Amino acid sequence: MPLIPQEWLGSHVELPEDLSPAQLAAALVKVGLEEETIHPGAVTGPLVFGRVLSREPKKQSNGKIINYCRVDVGQYNDEPGTGREPSELPSRGIICGAHNFEEGDTVVVSLPGAVLPGGFEIAARKTYGHISDGMMCSERELGLSDESEGIIVLDDAAAASVELGSDARQFLGLPGETLEINVTPDRGYCFSMRGVAREYHHSTGARFTDPGLADAPLPEATSSGFPVRVEDNAPIHGQPGCDLFVTRVVRGVDPAAPSPAWMARRLQQAGQRSISLAVDATNYVMLDLGQPLHAYDLNKIRGGGLVVRRAKAGEKLTTLDDVERTLDPEDLLITDNGGERVLGLAGVMGGADTEITAETSNVLVEAAHFDAVSVARSARRHKLPTEASKRFERGVDPAVAAVAAQRVVDLLVEYGGGEATDEVFVYGQVHQLPALAFPVADVERLTSLQLSEDRIAEILTDIGCTVERGGAVWSVQPPTWRPDLVGSAHLVEEIARLEGYDAIPTAVPTAPAGRGLSPAQRQRRDIARTLAETGWVQVLTYPFIPAARFDELGYAADDERRTAIALANPLQDEANLLRTSLLDTLIPVASLNVKRGNPAVAVFEMGTVSRPAGISPAPIPVAYLGSFFSGQGVIGAEAQRECQRL
């Protein structure tokens, strides 16, 4: 689930300076975004600025020259004559093997109790004849770079701006605590800083600036744009696999140009590693706006255009993870060379043939809108959940595709020295969501909230809807990033969510007189209570089973219980049938308990089974259940007698 770096989020919505991840989580929970966890920072414990007061180099018996230093770390200093190795100077004694610093330099110091990346714990220890009461750090030791020569030494301007003993994390760009949120399937727009910033605005009223809006007019399509054809002859559920495809071209990008430090830092805080400028730019914009993008090496594309089509039986593709995959006719593909060569699984992962390398200078940028069902099935079929597929299968805002492509172009031009050409191509158009008929009275009817029409219109407008008021039924058009809003009840839910669920009055319904449980309901409850009172444990199992389960249970070949309903879209390919008996899922539970050292397990379930019309297997005798679910038969026998009595 998405990680939310606060510094990044704060570029889109106004955040209090002292906002903690826990407070951010509390604000987002109010509007339905649950806290998954709060991740600790890359460095925990004291990491501070220090100034080298003295440096005493000594050659060791192994030939190394080791420096014993006294370092002023402000509030963390030992007073003169105190500490693990007393000194006349208020300071800490630190051993250092680096040689790129002098007395008077300002350095970064991790003190005992700090934990560096990789779980490296800092503690006072005796070495080379002295006690080292901390460590002067390099960029590599702090995870800021893969290579580093010597420790971090601040220049004069930076040294003058910091206070000795103050926390160095923010200055160095090290991530602090980071909130991870849980996004429900209907809120796919929250897989972006744009979406989360909007939700924080809804929760707190903080000023929000939508980054999905272009800062300047976007360039229009030109005749020289890199062309795309969509030839989807077998659309799934009647919807084309691709209805919008934007391409942009940037030439002359410096392959050696690094990603800017701020971008690499934000990607790291969001859980992604920095790869190269072109790849980082597409990943950054995806995380920022929610629009998955792909960058191709333009020089490797054949035939002067892309073709979007369904796969042919037996076709293969080596994806960017170096795995060769056999494609299914339902898979939507990006191809070139007139549709002959496969370049990638649309909306899931690109192929190895046109990936960005250390020699890439001409870049083709893709920003497309793919069908959610098509992407979800391909990702599941190939067991390939990616950052792109997670967004597409939940619904991506088609209106942001051109904006996202422009942002990537701007980054490649600004930081890679590339040239944004006039090669602009747009296939399809942004389709607005249909307007919904919204009876205003539904708000009170469904929630008991008594809100003015002005307040209702204000909330709907704030979530991005276009509202046409008039009479008892309004016309409300959802924004392009909310494909989950398809009915009046969904709009009421949004109003209740933003008004606050705690504002909904509590009303206990009055039970009609003269009614109660039916004889069958009463009997089921009596049996369940009896089983529980005699030591059985009620469980709830998933009703999905594999076909092999019938063999495991020893059902005869002609047993009617083998006639099961198959799921068209199972959660797990190996568990694609609905159970026809509670034993189908209860026995594995009992078996697992026995394997875990609980031989006297006794479990029962009150649930539903699914059978094709006309199939009515014989009920399982209580005696059989009792003998199976109790290792010694005692609990089962007692429960059997009570159930038979009932």
Number of strands: 30
> Outline, from the CA principal axes?
globular
The number of helical runs is 18
Q: pLDDT under 50 segments (min length 5)?
A: 621-636, 638-646
Write up what this structure looks like:
36% of the residues are buried. The protein is an alpha+beta fold and 646 residues long. It starts with a strand and ends with a helix. It is built from 18 helices and 30 strands. Helix 7 runs antiparallel to helix 10. Strands 5-4-3-6-11 form a five-stranded antiparallel β-sheet, with no helix packed on it. Strands 13-16-19-20-21 form a five-stranded mixed β-sheet.
Provide key terms for this protein.
alpha+beta, 30 strands, single chain, 18 helices, five-stranded antiparallel β-sheet, five-stranded mixed β-sheet
List the helices and strands and how they pair.
Layout: E1 3-4, H1 6-9, H2 21-29, E2 34-39, E3 47-59, E4 65-72, E5 92-96, E6 106-110, E7 115-116, E8 120-121, E9 125-127, E10 130-132, E11 135-136, H3 156-161, H4 169-172, E12 178-182, H5 193-204, E13 228-231, E14 242-251, H6 261-269, H7 277-289, E15 293-297, E16 306-310, E17 316-318, E18 324-326, E19 332-336, E20 341-345, E21 349-350, E22 363-370, H8 372-381, H9 387-392, H10 401-416, E23 419-428, E24 436-439, H11 442-447, H12 453-462, E25 466-468, E26 473-477, H13 488-499, H14 519-533, E27 537-538, E28 544-545, H15 548-552, E29 577-578, H16 583-595, E30 603-604, H17 622-629, H18 634-645
Parallel strand pairs: 13-16, 27-30
Antiparallel strand pairs: 1-12, 2-12, 3-4, 3-6, 4-5, 6-11, 7-8, 9-10, 14-22, 14-23, 15-22, 16-19, 17-18, 19-20, 20-21, 24-26, 25-26, 28-29
Helix pairs in contact: 6-7, 7-10, 17-18
